UniProtKB/TrEMBL annotation:
<feature type="domain" description="FAD-binding">
    <location>
        <begin position="2"/>
        <end position="332"/>
    </location>
</feature>
<dbReference type="Pfam" id="PF01494">
    <property type="entry name" value="FAD_binding_3"/>
</dbReference>
<protein>
    <submittedName>
        <fullName>2-polyprenyl-6-methoxyphenol hydroxylase-like FAD-dependent oxidoreductase</fullName>
    </submittedName>
</protein>
<dbReference type="GO" id="GO:0071949">
    <property type="term" value="F:FAD binding"/>
</dbReference>
<dbReference type="InterPro" id="IPR051704">
    <property type="entry name" value="FAD_aromatic-hydroxylase"/>
</dbReference>
<dbReference type="InterPro" id="IPR002938">
    <property type="entry name" value="FAD-bd"/>
</dbReference>
<dbReference type="InterPro" id="IPR036188">
    <property type="entry name" value="FAD/NAD-bd_sf"/>
</dbReference>
Length: 346
């Protein structure tokens, strides 16, 4: 029985854990957050990702949480209506709140979960990897998988000195607030020169999710504290002509679920080194603007598990095949991510 350590309990990690447990492996999932994360917008699934959900026997349950978004209204900077986008523009073939998806994946995944902890060191040997943790005792595993997002701790440890992040020129803040726009499973998008406002109500009719995005030259703000990030958002929208913008900026400060991130992609020559392999955003993030992050995570998890099963214990062959199969799909999605950024801000 192979022992596998997976870092990251969002989507890619638990999905891979499910497949590996089905195939008879012993799996441990470590997650820095103290519990399952509730943050995050709705996530959508496209194409073959639905087949992965079906294989996991959770497609019907996931569908029961669909947002049923009706579309997005396009606004000029003065608030006047300029057009309409169909629900498929953002929602793919199926869209659900991310909170619902992560809870379903956690419930069906029969693995050991270590919350509130993170990997601090990895030492590779001929037949194992010794993993050190911030809190848990040091342990040996046959394989280690980094599924811990665009700023992956596993990638930083296993690929020292490598900076694979490509900043796409856009950053933004997200938060939820009262639904004072009266949205009913709809969105509002106001693209402008170098900035954009997006608001949507996908579930609770009393609440809406807001994103304030703007042009940036680097992802440096991601590493700064909230006060600095908020100041940057305010500066970007200080002269915005829409009267509602001032209220949104005030609500941003009051929000207890404020989130800030930059649109970045991850580019690596190889997604594995020895017995360590990367999965999802940690290895090949296509940027949120691609709309393919969740689908890529699920398809990557299914592909990696299948390659491991077919390689009959040869992890090197499995990792090589996994990368060969996934590269064309990832390259196409990263192209989508770059194209979306170039058009998003007007």
């Amino acid at each position: 029985m192979t022992t596998v350590l997976i870092s990251g309990a969002s989507v890619a990690g638990p999905a891979l854990a499910w497949f590996l447990r089905r195939d008879g492996h012993r799996v441990t999932v470590v997650e820095r957050a103290p519990e399952l994360r509730d943050a995050g917008y709705a996530v959508d699934f496209r194409g073959a990702a639905l087949d992965v959900l079906a294989e996991m026997e959770i497609l019907d349950e996931v569908r029961s949480h669909r947002t049923r978004m009706a579309g997005t209204t396009l606004l000029a900077e003065d608030g006047s209506v300029t057009g309409e986008l169909p629900a498929s523009a953002f929602g793919g073939d199926l869209e659900v709140p991310k909170r619902a998806l992560t809870r379903i994946l956690h419930r069906v995944t029969d693995a050991e979960f270590l919350f509130g902890d993170t990997i601090t060191a990895l030492v590779q040997h001929d037949g194992r990897v010794t993993a050190s943790f911030e809190h848990a005792p040091t342990r040996d595993f046959d394989l280690v998988v980094g599924a811990d997002g665009v700023r992956s701790a596993v990638r930083r440890i296993a690929f020292p000195g490598v900076d694979p992040l490509e900043h796409l020129g856009m950053s933004g803040a997200g938060f939820t607030t009262d639904n004072h726009f009266g949205l009913d499973r709809r969105g509002l998008l106001q693209p402008g020169a170098g900035r954009a406002i997006f608001a949507l109500c996908a579930g609770d009719p009393a609440r809406m999710t807001v994103s304030l995005s703007f042009a940036t030259s680097s992802a440096e703000l991601d590493r700064r504290d909230r006060a600095v990030q908020e100041a940057a958002v305010r500066a970007a929208f200080a002269d915005h002509p829409w009267p509602a913008t001032r209220r949104l900026l005030s609500e941003m400060t009051a929000a207890d679920d404020f989130y800030f991130a930059s649109a970045c992609q991850v580019h690596l020559d190889s997604w594995s080194t020895g017995r360590v392999v990367l999965l999802g955003d940690a290895g090949y993030c296509a940027a949120p603007t691609s709309g393919m992050g969740t689908s890529q995570a699920l398809i990557g998890a299914s592909t990696l598990a299948r390659c491991l099963a077919e390689a009959d214990g040869d992890h090197t062959a499995a990792f090589d095949r996994y990368e060969k199969e996934m590269r064309p799909y990832v390259t196409a999605n990263q192209t989508l991510g770059r194209e979306a950024v170039s058009s998003f801000g007007g």
